[in-house]
Amino acid sequence: MGSKIKPSRNKKDSVIIRDPILPNSGGIRSRQDHISEICILSFQAKVKELPFIVKNTPVNIKKVGPYHQILVLGSVIGKLSKKQSEMVETCAFLGVTYAGIIINEQNGLYARFTRIVR
Amino acid sequence: MVYMHVLPGLFDDYLQPGRYCHAQNGLYLPYVQAAEADAVIVDCLNPSGANIVTCKDQRIQLFLDEVGGLAFDTAPSGGIKLNDPYIPVFDYRTIELARMTGADVVGLTLRDILVNPLKIGAGHYAINKIQFRDVSVIRRLCSKKKVILFLTGLDVLIETIWHQRVPCELFQQLNMMGFWAITGFNFSVFGGECPVAQSLNQKKSLVSSMLLEENDIFTIPHIYAVNDFHIRKYQQWLKNNPQIQLVTMNCQMQRQEEDIEHVANTVQAMLMVNSKLHIILQGYRFSEIHRLIGFQDRIHIADAKAVKYAQNFQNANPEILTLPGQYKSDDYPNLVHSNIVYRTQKLHHLLNYMCQ
């Protein structure tokens, strides 16, 4: 990314620094390595276009059956795919949650989720 | 199960009372001064290990071991000398034009030797896969020109390539491509962040240069200092290693006055140590060259402006008005050529003017 005298990193350019690959590491891997492999940095899912859903509105997710529903103020506005739901669930065990907001794309509204590592 | 999501402050890990950097205890002396911790404004607690490895990362020792500690005790043997003040940086799309340019020395960057390495999804860059370009295409250019590969780019690219350097046989691939010289990796160093992480990335870059040299590749060490402690550390390193007569600094992000001033101060501090030392400033603005008065015969600037302007069908010379539709695709090679000639002459003129 380069360098600067102030901490103004490009938020689009984020990478988990993975453990060095050592010849005799014995296969023990850190939590960060697992997170880097399993929990993608961000993903998005299409949501319904309703009057109260505007850009930057925070969204929640709640597991119902095999899927996670996307909620705004308690209303279901969409759901994650099976693959996304599985990943969110696996990542929760690694201490990773996803923060979501509404974004406006050319073809409609999406909920974009970004990884948060505790 | 409901996961709570609060976005404000998501990326704003700024220091709160009671948090501190381990360097404050003198744990990393003499390589990181305790006073460096005073400048920390971003919490060293970085549980995801995002972009840097800090003093509070439980894996820190693993990373210190990887680079042999924080001491600047490694240096390539030198041997590279450069005359041309201007180095046009091409990309893979213009690699054939690079062969035909009048410049003796040309540049490429890391992403140019990889096949579509990056994708952007849900607002973030990610690595597609690591696949090297056809070695013969790069070799063809390297057989005709002195090609410098600048190992600069996004963190996601640099850090992934570095991590995967052994399985993807990076150094063997680079060796086969036949570059004249390759710079050390430009690992990120940001002021206000953990000084241990800064120091680790500086050392990692020096180690990357050593690894290039071990693989029979001429290397140009990359340096970057964000404070006076760093400047003194690099000065001592240059004093200890007078054989180093060429270093590089990536200046592409420096656009604000204080950043540019800091770069100029750093460059002057480095060049004062060794009268034979030259520096390649990648992406340094021509308009700021006056700040380096007294060192003009040891400054080299590498940038992609000539090529980028041509890609937008624009003339790099601001005195030549480019009308919409004036240039057709057939004009493109000539435009690249004329832009390079213009940039070369412009820099030459500026440097000469400084001598007067």
Distance between the termini of chain A: 25 Å
Strand order of the largest sheet of chain A: 2-7-6-3-4-5
Number of helices of chain B: 10
Characterize the largest beta sheet of chain B: strand count, sense, and whether it forms a barrel.
4 strands, parallel
Class by SSE composition of chain B: alpha/beta
Mean pLDDT across the residues of chain A is: 90
Shape descriptor of chain B: globular
Helix content of chain B: 25-40%
Q: What would you call the structural class of chain A?
A: alpha+beta
Proportion of helical residues of chain A: 10-25%
Give average pLDDT of chain B, whole number.
91
Head-to-tail CA distance between termini of chain B: 73 Å
Give the overall shape of chain A.
flat
Beta-strand segment tally of chain B: 12
Number of strands of chain A: 7
Task: Describe, in plain words, how this protein is organized in 3D.
The complex is a heterodimer of chains A (118) and B (356). Chain A has 118 residues and is of the alpha+beta class. Chain A has helices spanning 31-38, 82-93, and strands at residues 3-4, 42-46, 58-64, 67-72, 75-79, 96-105, 108-117. In chain A, strands 2-7-6-3-4-5 form a six-stranded antiparallel sheet. In chain A, strand 4 (67-72) and strand 5 (75-79) form a beta hairpin. Chain A is flat and about 55 Å long. The two termini of chain A are 25 Å apart. Chain B is α/β, with parallel strands linked by helices and 356 residues long. Helix content of chain B is 34%, strand content 13%. Chain B has helices at 60-66, 95-100, 135-144, 155-163, 170-177, 195-214, 228-240, 257-273, 305-311, 332-355; strands spanning 2-3, 86-88, 105-109, 118-121, 124-127, 146-150, 181-183, 189-190, 219-220, 246-250, 278-282, 299-303. In chain B, the strands form three sheets. Chain B has a four-stranded parallel sheet with strand order 2-12-11-10, with helices on one face. The longest helix of chain B is centred in the C-terminal third of the chain and has 24 residues, at 332-355. Chain B is globular, with a radius of gyration of 21 Å. Chains A and B meet through strand 1, helix 1, strand 2, strand 3 and strand 6 of A and strand 1, helix 1, strand 5, helix 4 and strand 8 of B. Strand 1 (3-4) of chain A pairs parallel with strand 8 of chain B.
